Amino acid sequence: xxxxxxxxxxxxxxxxxxxxxxxxxxxxxxxxxxxxxxxxxxxxxxxxxxxxxxxxxxxxxxxxxxxxxxxxxxxxxxxxxxxxxxxxxxxxxxxxxxxxxxxxxxxxxxxxxxxxxxxxxxxxxxxxxxxxxxxxxxxxxxxxxxxxxxxxxxxxxxxxxxxxxxxxxxxxxxxxxxxxxxxxxxxxxxxxxxxxxxxxxxxxxxxxxxxxxxxxxxxxxxxxxxxxxxxxxxxxxxxxxxxxxxxxxxxxxxxxxxxxxxxxxxxxxxxxxxxxxxxxxxxxxxxxxxxxxxxxxxxxxxxxxxxxxxxxxxxxxxxxxxxxxxxxxxxxxxxxxxxxxxxxxxxxxxxxxxxxxxxxxxxxxxxxxxxxxxxxxxx
Amino acid sequence: xxxxxxxxxxxxxxxxxxxxxxxxxxxxxxxxxxxxxxxxxxxxxxxxxxxxxxxxxxxxxxxxxxxxxxxxxxxxxxxxxxxxxxxxxxxxxxxxxxxxxxxxxxxxxxxxxxxxxxxxxxxxxxxxxxxxxxxxxxxxxxxxxxxxxxxxxxxxxxxxxxxxxxxxxxxxxxxxxxxxxxxxxxxxxxxxxxxxxxxxxxxxxxxxxxxxxxxxxxxxxxxxxxxxxxxxxxxxxxxxxxxxxxxxxxxxxxxxxxxxxxxxxxxxxxxxxxxxxxxxxxxxxxxxxxxxxxxxxxxxxxxxxxxxxxxxxxxxxxxxxxxxxxxxxxxxxxxxxxxxxxxxxxxxxxxxxxxxxxxxxxxxxxxxxxxxxxxxxxxxxxxxxxxxxxxxxxxxxxxxxxxxxxxxxxxxxxxxxxxxxxxxxxxxxxxxxxxxxxxxxxxxxxxxxxxxxxxxxxxxxxxxxxxxxxxxxxxxxxxxxxxxx
Amino acid sequence: xxxxxxxxxxxxxxxxxxxxxxxxxxxxxxxxxxxxxxxxxxxxxxxxxxxxxxxxxxxxxxxxxxxxxxxxxxxxxxxxxxxxxxxxxxxxxxxxxxxxxxxxxxxxxxxxxxxxxxxxxxxxxxxxxxxxxxxxxxxxxxxxxxxxxxxxxxxxxxxxxxxxxxxxxxxxxxxxxxxxxxxxxxxxxxxxxxxxxxxxxxxxxxxxxxxxxxxxxxxxxxxxxxxxxxxxxxxxxxxxxxxxxxxxxxxxxxxxxxxxxxxxxxxxxxxxxxxxxxxxxxxxxxxxxxxxxxxxxxxxxxxxxxxxxxxxxxxxxxxxxxxxxxxxxxxxxxxxxxxxxxxxxxxxxxxxxxxxxxxxxxxxxxxxxxxxxxxxxxxxxxxxxxxxxxxxxxxxxxxxxxxxxxxxxxxxxxxxxxxxxxxxxxxxxxxxxxxxxxxxxxxxxxxxxxxxxxxxxxxxxxxxxxxxxxxxxxxxxxxxxxxxxxxxxxxxxxxxxxxxxxxxxxxxxxxxxxxxxxxxxxxxxxxxxxxxxxxxxxxxxxxxxxxxxxxxxxxxxxxxxxxxxxxxxxxxxxxxxxxxxxxxxxxxxxxxxxxxxxxxxxxxxxxxxxxxxxxxxxxxxxxxxxxxxxxx
Lengths: 379, 485, 632
Hints:
The structure holds three protein chains of three kinds.
Chain A: H1 9-24, H2 34-64, H3 82-89, H4 96-109, H5 112-118, H6 121-134, H7 139-147, H8 151-184, H9 191-205, E1 212-216, E2 219-224, H10 232-247, H11 290-298, H12 303-310, H13 319-342, H14 352-369, H15 374-378
Antiparallel strand pairs in A: 1-2
Chain B: H1 2-17, H2 25-49, E1 58-66, E2 71-77, H3 82-97, H4 106-125, H5 129-138, H6 140-150, H7 155-184, H8 191-196, H9 201-218, H10 227-234, H11 237-262, H12 264-291, H13 295-316, H14 319-350, H15 369-382, H16 389-401, H17 406-430, H18 447-465, H19 468-483
Antiparallel strand pairs in B: 1-2
Helix pairs in contact in B: 1-2, 1-4, 2-3, 2-4, 3-4, 3-11, 3-14, 4-5, 4-6, 4-11, 5-7, 6-7, 7-9, 7-10, 9-11, 9-12, 10-13, 11-12, 11-13, 11-14, 12-13, 12-17, 13-14, 13-16, 13-17, 14-15, 14-16, 14-18, 14-19, 15-17, 15-18, 16-18
Chain C: H1 2-7, H2 11-22, H3 24-27, H4 37-61, E1 67-76, E2 79-87, H5 89-112, H6 119-138, H7 142-160, H8 167-196, H9 203-211, H10 217-234, H11 242-247, H12 252-277, H13 281-304, H14 308-328, H15 332-360, H16 376-389, H17 396-404, H18 413-438, H19 454-469, H20 472-476, H21 493-515, H22 528-538, H23 543-580, H24 594-615, H25 619-631
Antiparallel strand pairs in C: 1-2
Helix pairs in contact in C: 2-4, 2-6, 4-5, 4-6, 5-6, 5-12, 5-15, 5-19, 6-7, 6-12, 7-8, 7-12, 8-10, 9-12, 10-12, 10-13, 12-14, 12-15, 13-14, 13-18, 13-22, 14-15, 14-18, 15-16, 15-17, 15-19, 16-18, 16-19, 18-21
């Protein structure tokens, strides 16, 4: 792997300038080519299907499996029958563990309005009511709650994240699936169109409220009411990009957790284990959680992408690595859309002052991106 | 019955040699495969009918031949040769199977391969010293060509070195045989009658010395071993399999059959020195293996170390140690064949055997995970991890030798410990870690390519758990070898 | 039915093995479309079966005399290798402990490893691990135990190497294997020698043999030392202790097994070998010295560690050091109790540590804090585990120590001093870790820490309950092995003061642990001497570097030297002597010159001449023979 970190500083700043120039010219971080369009759209189609399943399940768990100590059937979405049970035992199912992994990572890193709201007295007050209601006839749990005061509230905070991520992915899934539909209708031809499509979707949903309410014994509790003012873009999308795309968590399969080896930084803000940084080659090995996502996506690949993959020397033998490589490409498109959407001014502005502000803003992003897999996917 | 074991591959060899040129490599391979499978089947039938309780040669065939020379076509099989003949036919089959389907000059190749197999079988079966020598020499020629034509870059050098060393070895063996007949005044080179002649210890030593040097070159024992790493490195994979699995065993077979069998009193005099030499050879081989960067050289030096245990067991000359020596031959044959096969797979897919340029091959998507797993298993078998054949064969060797030569045995045990060191250095370097970019476009390994490795693995584990299935063939013979004619 | 189960007890280890084999379709990548979880379920089921089978038999064995099942494995010449298993309350109890902890660890792994796609390989290895451990528990033959200890070495290598792409794992797995292997090879030497001296390799035969052994003192001393070496590696005793630290790179559920029952397996074999150590006082002394050095050294190492797993793993070595001392003194019942109390407590502590690691994605205790109120199961597990390890609360280790000093055993002041030292440091360590991890203010990485899901919480809570019940063992069955109750020696001062002193030492340790300033991620001791000692302990007295400079350097230098000799001296010399006399050295040049082809020609010519002379005129005999066969 090209280790950009060791490259001279001036080389990096040249690279940053190059990408700034590209972005201002309306291009994306990922270079435009017919293969890239095919890969990105194809993988986003599959990702859309998987995200749909993830999102439905996350919301189901948040709404129905909260404060359940033994949620044996939490991945069943409420439909338990013998056939499904056998299928699940055979592990012939979506790996919802990955969705939970993303949720936990996001929860752990925090950031954004959702994270702040979970520490607010308003939230905790409702949580207390929910706990009282749920364990009304369970003195054991209430006793435990009295001793370990943060135990159940922490679980409910996690549930809020289940719900938040579920709602976020709902929107993303729809965006990706409609992108695929448009591609199949011949409306999408270039990477910048892909970016534009995603950007439009993000903008349309930007102010969608994020809420969370649960029902206990026939009564509804609004854990995150609409009036809390949490919205899609700033309170889930931005923290999501930060936590999942950039920071992530170190994979035990590649990074040592040994404290005395000091491989993992003290400051989470400088973590770079996220989706944009992860090395695709070890996918499929032990201790690499994204393998689960790649495994899920392999079942929903559109035929044209599968044919594309089969051209490699290993055919389907190294499918998951190839999926991961395409996936990283597509995530750079999503990142481009996010950069564009969050920019202080339109990137193609001609006003020098606005340009200046834009450049400072872009430099902030690119300084972090330049050490990601960006150079690898474009080479 | 026994002649068929020699003639079948011989005829196959001739048939392939005279095939029309338009026959493709694939079909030639198929014919060779059919021949080797039938030899294998024949061998299984033979094993089925063999009676391990008898302490004499069975299925003997005797044709008077060159009477003025004292040479007779006399074949026979006993518990000492049976496992080796079986090993030979199994590994020949594996060698043919794992030969590339698109070779240069396939007819010549398979013809030589089968000739090699016939020569080895003949040597194991010969009950006539001169006949043994003929087969012993016969096998050199095909092997020379197999290395010199289908070898690596320095194949000419390696093949020539092999040729010179082994021919020299042959001359010494022949000299000793001739001297024996001359000194005893026997009228023929027949093995059994020669055993009953008694010679003074001095003349035994006189004859034993050239014989031993000849045998040590073949096994090989330090300091006569240097042809082996070169030959292995340059030979293609199937040839390495045969070389390590079968041809080296000719040396140890001769050691037991002739050095111990014919010159027991003289051998006992030399035995303490031989035990020390075995310990030196074992430690030397292990120590060299640690420093190697070429995977194949590591396996080759490991071969030297493990073959030395047979010398140790032979020097102890107890009933147990002789049985153990035979068992160790089988064990080394299977394990080294497996390791060479796997190194061959790595080489074929990556184009290198250099430990420093390989990394992370266990990667399940883009690496060679199954090859790597089998390699770990093979290395463990070689290091003597129980449950596999390497442990029990070495344990018997050490247990058999310890009461006689405790100190050399302990040093050999240290050598066993070092086995794990050099193999783990290689494995953790080559298979663990992150796959490098350079290795990210390797062709996949097909299951059929690993069939021979799986067969060997099954045998290694089976005999490791049920050693008596091998040991009981040779147990009675071990006693016979020590009690004299 | 019970009888049938009793006589098929040898199947129990095979359950685990079968489970391991059944994982192959997934771990070999034959099944790729669906996930590997069935492999995990199969292994859980197998372990459950083993546990149930074991429980039934364990309940019935109390009324039966000790039995032996002997299997003749291999008979060659004068050597008869038998594999024997023993059916006694002790061996079945050990088996129960193995399958019990294995069951819990595997259930725990279902949660801990849920994001790992190599789950099948992991469970396969765990099954293999369990099979080997179960076998050791039952084994009554040194040969079988040795074989199984080697299996443990192998599976430790594979389990530590589970995350094989991670750089530190690469060396850790290798070092773990080689360190253990050093011990194993020396043990094998002892085994070969024992067998050669005419001792049968079954433990009962060994005991009988040891009583009548005619060995000279030096031999018996060396023999004893050789037999100690194997368990020294397995139990991570000085000087073979460092692998356990490195082995912490492996997945935590395997760490639970490793720090509780795997290290105990080595000590279990040691206990069984104890009669042989009576041959020579040197081996007994060696055990005591090794145990003492390890107990003191690793106790010190533990208190300076900042990695949550390593704080606990060094303490494992320390307690196993006490076991060594007990065996050296010949007090095997105490050794057993120590193993039992330690195994339960340490398994629990590791479960707790694992859930902290998973929740906080971190192993550095200086970056933690404030977890207690949000993670009840984890916190309680740590507290109970810690209490079980330290002789302060009336839990497992307290009662074990109490039994040691209740007057039934010959004890001395030095022993009490070691115990006080280990106990105090252990208390200090546990208190320190508890404060850093669970108390105080949450830090960044512990800010969001929901309790772990049920597959991890359930085994943790179950084991907590077991640990609370564990003191019953030393109280009710303190004499497992001795056929007769040792005499109560009376009311000496040491007997009277031991328990109070132990309590004081535990309390003192806790107080110091509670009082010392805690080191946080950004803080380093400012005082030079403190920093020196902290680094000295934290980096394991730099023993690894010492090995690097001595043993490793020596081996690698020797290897390079021999290799050089081989290439330039031996090869050259032999080539010269054997060939230069016949042909000029040119024949060996890399390019095949005309000369060598000429040489080949002469050989071919010579051989064909020989063949011709031999076959000349003899064809008729050949054809006659074959035609006679053909016409038959």
